[in-house]
Design goal:
- The chain has about 325 residues and is an alpha/beta fold.
- The chain has a single domain, classed as Amidase signature (AS) domain (Amidase signature (AS) enzymes).
- It is built from 12 helices and 7 strands.
- The protein has a 7-stranded mixed sheet with strand order 2-1-6-7-5-3-4.
- Helix 3 links the parallel strand 3 and strand 4.
- Helix 1 packs antiparallel against helix 2 and helix 4 crosses helix 7.
- The chain is globular, with a radius of gyration of 21 Å.
């Protein structure tokens, strides 16, 4: 949505030491840059094993920078790219679909084989994600109580008790969306509802992971639009949380499965706002993201005569 390159590395590929935990089984830090090569360079600096993070993968990263530079030469001969049929169609803006189709043609022209791949459980990923994330957020954010560190808000009148300080601190310290997620998560984890909600969501997560496993037996990477629409106005969807959550429909499956994903700008929609192209790879094969992303980026910039921001200079101000 911002005309930048963004990468979510393989879960455990970048240390989370020092980050504030939101959802421990989902959280992962990654680079956001102007170019694919810059993301690869930053990713190599950020990544690698860290004994201070219990989820950190005790292995070296694949050659990310080399993959980006190889991709920029424009040769994808022998690479098989799968289009996820469940991440297209109804709800996707016409301009988003048009840029996606054009990008597929470009990749085909660079020597890649494009095939359709079905991941039938992806349609349930959104619902599972918005049970798992709030549940883990409720648990992780419980420590922010104003007792030992951080914001501390004391009641304006009456006795200053631990319970009243916690209530005042959390009431003023968290915004409406954070409160909504904490309440949802607390409810999903409560006695009598755990198996029906959080437990069931974890079962769906396993099915999504199996979809990825089956898909990557057929293709090297999967692709889709990054988001179904271009950016919406600030605050426009605050009164309709579901509409806001639906913008995550294409990126959530990778987060549930822990596989890496990359979004590269692939043009602007009819409204003049940037569109993203998502590439997904198997766990610990982050280098494939950079090869495909750099190849598409180089081909697009050649046709545009420069970077995306040159096509929509007003985005420079917004960014």
């Amino acid at each position: 949505m911002t005309g930048t390159v963004g990468v979510k590395p393989t879960y455990g590929g970048v240390s989370r030491y020092g980050l504030i935990a939101l959802a421990s089984s989902l959280d992962q830090a990654g680079p956001v840059t102007r170019t694919v090569l810059d993301s690869a360079l930053l990713h190599e600096l950020m990544g690698g094993h860290d004994a201070r993070d219990s989820t950190s993968i005790p292995e070296d990263l694949p050659p990310l920078v080399d993959a980006a530079r190889r991709g920029a030469t424009g040769d994808l001969t022998g690479m098989k790219i799968g289009v996820v049929t469940e991440l297209d169609g109804e709800g996707y803006q016409d301009g988003v679909r048009a840029r996606f189709a054009e990008s597929l043609d470009i990749l085909r022209g660079l020597g890649a084989e494009i095939v359709e791949v079905s991941c039938p459980h992806f349609e349930y990923a959104l619902g599972a994600y918005y049970l798992i994330l709030p549940s883990e957020a409720s648990s992780n954010l419980a420590k922010f109580d104003g007792m030992r560190f951080g914001l501390r808000v004391e009641p304006e009148e009456g006795p200053v008790t631990a319970e009243r300080v916690m209530s005042a601190t959390r009431g003023q310290g968290f915004g409406d969306e954070v409160k909504r997620r904490i309440i949802l998560g607390t409810y999903a984890l409560s006695a009598g509802y755990y198996d029906a909600y959080y437990g069931s969501a974890q079962k769906v997560r396993t099915l999504v992971q199996r979809d990825f496993d089956a898909a990557f037996e057929q293709v090297d990477v999967l692709v889709s639009p990054t988001a179904p629409t271009t950016a919406f106005k600030l605050g426009e969807k605050l009164d309709d949380p579901l509409a806001m959550y639906l913008n995550d429909v294409a990126t959530i499956p990778a987060n549930l499965a822990g596989v890496p994903g990359l979004s590269v700008p692939n043009g602007v929609s009819d409204d003049g706002l940037p569109v993203g192209f998502q590439v997904l790879a198997p766990a610990k094969a982050d280098d494939r993201l950079y090869r495909v992303g750099a190849a598409l980026e180089a081909a697009l910039e050649k046709s545009w005569g420069g970077p995306l921001l040159a096509q929509a200079p007003e985005l420079e101000v917004r960014s």
